[in-house]
TetR family transcriptional regulator
Amino acid sequence: MKTKDRIIQASLELFNAHGERNVTTNHIASHLNISPGNLYYHFRNKEEIIRNIFEKYVQHMEVSFEPVKPSEDAVEFLSNYLDAVFSALFHFSFLYDNLPVIMARDPELKSQYLEIHNKMMDKINALVLGLQNAEVINIDHDDVDDFSNIIKQQVTFWISYCKTSQEDTSITDELIYNGLLKVLLLFKPYVTSEFTDVVKDLTARYKSLANVES
Amino acid sequence: MKTKDRIIQASLELFNAHGERNVTTNHIASHLNISPGNLYYHFRNKEEIIRNIFEKYVQHMEVSFEPVKPSEDAVEFLSNYLDAVFSALFHFSFLYDNLPVIMARDPELKSQYLEIHNKMMDKINALVLGLQNAEVINIDHDDVDDFSNIIKQQVTFWISYCKTSQEDTSITDELIYNGLLKVLLLFKPYVTSEFTDVVKDLTARYKSLANVES
């Protein structure tokens, strides 16, 4: 692997493990056994490393959140969506832990984030409308936008919420699956009687992944 | 007003207006037309000012979120809860904008926040159970804890969500009332047929405060 890529990879791992605000370029260089000068040859500062990681994040989001094809199984789509959310939160947890600060610090990154945010809103809207059309859920058409925003907020700030509501929080599989269960609970009251059992099975699957008694 | 109190008051205003991370002790001193030395006579650093503001926050939370008395009107309690949420978000918006960072920086403040957080969780739980007992809503008993956590997360990160989902965000009445409408939407699918109209009226009231067409 090229040094530049090794720096990006190591930075992502260190940011996720210790929080972006606790990791300096010196930590990153020392972790890789390279000199700070060598790191600065590749990146002017930490912001530039974050921008490179953010490119990977954007690619990850594009690939893992595929558009909803209305012909296919709607519940399968819900499950695929939740798996994609899991993967994004798990691989880029440091972003979700510190989003407002990282965005406030770098207006260009914020613009890029807003672009991704809007694409994600469209995909969540398509998911909700897909479930509605397949009669999996029954929600007032006027509420769809607000409901999609609630889901987006719930996902985006799940890690921040966990970190501010208990003494010590490490980002584990279980923690993220517990967040997905909250998203499933948001859908639950809208589920039609025909699909109650299907969504119950889906919930049981994520509960076992989250190590929660169902 | 004593200089110490003037510093606390001005800091709160500046933090809310510009974001805590953009305001230095020099800004605060210059805003009050006092010397930095005079400010440092009262507070060692910005952290100490924030701790003093946090004391006010704790008092505010204690006073405005009164415990639910089961004998009284359940919908009135929901409305009182929402008004109290409005007031907390409005008066201490800078905290909600930067909570994970402020907590990570000051472990003692984090412990105090966790205490308040747990009290608030108890109050939200009591609110949900109060609405359940008054048959305003019908929710599975097993879901009450998760539902209360969803409400808490929705409220706590509403301002962070707004700030990261649009280019420029100023904290206005309308913005906060739009957040309260999201909380009402969380309750909506659980509302019993008997109370549908009551909750619809409550929603209409907040929509008019948020300047949203209903």
